[in-house]
């Protein structure tokens, strides 16, 4: 039931504070992540993990890319991420001690399921599934599983499933990181608990985002830029826009601009940039000035510490202060709203975009 919302997608975007609360419920005790929530035998298995291989599709894949940054930074072990349709059909090499993680909202995505079955023929240490549907094929066929508890997602474009996957991936990162001497677990758990409030604050930017959306209605292309953990957030923002508004959107790591995409920048190519406060902020700011110098119009979601010259070529939405590690979760929300409002203004079928199915059970 959509309740008072015009579309399921909007309802699901607005459910995110509750969803995050549900993801954390029963998973945290005295500032620490409980390991039994991953299933029986989880602790023994986690003790042996030396490497991680993540496999997923679409939005779930984008969540996996964020996790790669977190795992390599906080755990300090190698993490690889691949789309399932590639992984399943190529010869892959499994290093001893590798944990195989699948991420899926539905748990029925054909490519992800086949990738898991392929991987089971190799000597992976174990198989963990991060999934929103208990009892799905993916969960049944994995050794360990942790539910994202997002509740049913009806809109074809994934929103709350993505943020809930990110929260679960952070829990997963923390249980691995404690085995490698990471001492910041309590601090990050406290930040996870603050997410609920921050999510509410970001949703309150809705009217500003709705206004920003007007600039995209007559556009045919858009470029999304981010760096570090925010690069996959840019990819996810571009995916949302193309899925529901049918505007061609591409994401680039901002540092790659000079290596090609800068050639596309002109007044007809809106550039969406995501600039939380992190060690790459200054570098990103420099990339943004390159865009402006080419006549590009900038749509910026930024921390209050970002320094950008005001101008007619800039639409800025300032986000509340967010702990750096949590930025991918928080900054994905305004991008969901942007895609949503652009699609509404264009009059496309938001919940049921053409040519797409909610659960891709065939390859
Ligand atoms: C995008 C979207 C798809 C799914 C993909 C994987 O909004 O919904 O890209 O993320 O089909 O689906 P699951 O997560 O069910 O495996």
Plain-language structure description:
The protein has helices spanning 8-14, 16-24, 42-47, 58-75, 84-87, 110-119, 137-140, 160-177, 185-203, 206-213, 230-245, 281-293, 327-346; strands at 28-29, 32-33, 51-56, 79-83, 98-104, 126-131, 144-147, 221-226, 248-253, 271-275, 298-303, 314-319. It is globular and about 60 Å long. The protein has 13 helices and twelve strands. The mean pLDDT is 96. Helix content is 42%, strand content 17%. Bound molecules: fructose -6-phosphate.
Q: Helical segment tally?
A: 13
Distance between the termini: 30 Å
Which ligands does the model contain, each kind named once? Answer: fructose -6-phosphate
- Sheet having the most strands: 5 strands, parallel
Give the SSE map.
Layout: H1 8-14, H2 16-24, E1 28-29, E2 32-33, H3 42-47, E3 51-56, H4 58-75, E4 79-83, H5 84-87, E5 98-104, H6 110-119, E6 126-131, H7 137-140, E7 144-147, H8 160-177, H9 185-203, H10 206-213, E8 221-226, H11 230-245, E9 248-253, E10 271-275, H12 281-293, E11 298-303, E12 314-319, H13 327-346
Parallel strand pairs: 3-4, 3-5, 5-6, 6-7, 8-9, 8-10, 10-11, 11-12
Antiparallel strand pairs: 1-2
Bound molecules: fructose -6-phosphate (F6R).
Short description:
This protein is 42% helix and 17% strand. By secondary structure, the protein is α/β, with parallel strands linked by helices.
Q: Can you give keywords for this protein?
A:
single chain; alpha/beta; 5-stranded parallel sheet; globular; binds fructose -6-phosphate; transferase; Glutamine--fructose-6-phosphate aminotransferase [isomerizing]; EC 2.6.1.16; aminotransferase
